[in-house]
Task: inverse folding
């Protein structure tokens, strides 16, 4: 799916690598998999002792096999899993320098709202047509990890009517597709050792639904930048307060910089918990960081994204999802 980069990796400098081999080496994980009816976001902390690191290296290296074990039981249902590794454990786990832009999630402190930075060493983003497969995969995975990891968060997302978030707007419309999708999400020539990988940022948002429902539909639409029922894009505000979609549009001399969002609603009604799990994949981490800056600090400051007045970010972690081959080589 990504364009095979032309520059050779250090390991390949002595012998030329065929285009086929290059394509295999840089094949991404399942970044481009479609949104499914169910998804899970499993965030783990890795224990720092040598035995735990070795165990984690072996389990993450066998991700492809674990996926196959479950996928074949899916009876044709979509099942995918992407693994992200944080800056904190990158070198210990891989024995290699980190991808160029990989860094811990940078807290963004606006006048009214904060994009918090929280712990997390591994991300498993699991998608399936039904929750049973996700539970089965997580069970097998966590048994394999044993006590080498601790679970920081495990959120089960679900499809809410026709692809809406719990603010009741269709979410994911402006995602890139076709060739724009790998161009926006997959690292290429700019970091040859990590071609085929993707930066991943997650944030768990909790909504104040009563507050949101207290707004008129016109106000809600102005906040998002689209109409609610039929999902039509509204014009950018000529001046002053910008909508969410405008603040998240990053444009420079090179054009518009897209990211891929696979957000999912999650909820525990009995506890009054309703949220959106944001997950963004990007070829360049700075693009997501810029969006967060514009949302939380505002453009111009202090005109922050009004979605935040009804949505509180309670987590924030950055990972890198390397190419499939890189991941499976960890197990060798
Ligand atoms: C409470 C959390 C969030 C909710 C409920 C939410 C919801 C939405 C909705 C309904 C849209 C319009 C339809 C669409 O194009 O998908 C949208 C657009 C978008 N959102 Fe969010 N979003 C959230 C957080 C974020 C965050 C944290 C980012 C990036 C850091 C982001 C980036 C974008 C982008 C890039 C667009 C498309 C802009 C365009 O039209 O080009 N969103 N979001």
Result:
């Amino acid at each position: 799916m990504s364009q095979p980069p032309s520059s050779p990796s250090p390991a390949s400098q002595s012998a030329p690598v065929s285009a086929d081999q290059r394509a295999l080496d840089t094949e991404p994980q399942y970044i481009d998999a479609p949104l499914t009816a169910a998804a899970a976001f499993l965030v783990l902390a890795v224990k720092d002792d040598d035995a735990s690191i070795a165990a984690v290296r072996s389990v993450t290296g066998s991700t492809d096999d674990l996926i196959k074990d479950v996928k074949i039981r899916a009876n044709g249902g979509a099942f995918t899993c992407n693994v992200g590794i944080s800056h904190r454990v990158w070198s210990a786990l891989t024995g290699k320098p980190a991808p160029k832009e990989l860094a811990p999630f940078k807290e963004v402190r606006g006048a009214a709202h904060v994009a918090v930075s929280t712990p997390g060493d591994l991300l498993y983003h699991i998608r399936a047509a039904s929750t049973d497969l996700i539970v089965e995969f997580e069970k097998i995975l966590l048994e394999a990890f044993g006590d080498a990891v601790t679970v920081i968060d495990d959120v089960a997302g679900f499809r809410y009517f026709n692809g809406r978030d719990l603010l009741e707007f269709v979410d994911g419309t402006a995602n890139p597709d076709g060739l724009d999708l790998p161009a926006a999400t997959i690292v290429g020539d700019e970091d040859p050792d990590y071609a085929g990988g993707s930066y991943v940022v997650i944030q768990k948002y909790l909504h104040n639904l009563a507050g949101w429902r207290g707004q008129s539909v016109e106000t809600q639409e102005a906040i998002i930048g689209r109409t609610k029922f039929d999902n039509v894009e509204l014009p950018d505000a000529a001046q002053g307060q910008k909508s969410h979609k405008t603040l998240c549009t990053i444009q420079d001399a090179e054009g518009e910089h897209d990211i891929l969002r696979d957000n999912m609603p999650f909820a525990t009604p009995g506890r009054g918990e309703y949220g959106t799990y944001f997950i963004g994949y990007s070829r360049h981490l700075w693009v997501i960081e810029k969006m967060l800056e514009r949302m939380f600090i505002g453009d111009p400051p202090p005109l922050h994204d009004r979605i935040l007045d009804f949505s509180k970010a309670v987590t924030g972690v950055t990972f890198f999802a390397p190419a499939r081959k890189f991941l499976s080589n960890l197990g060798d």
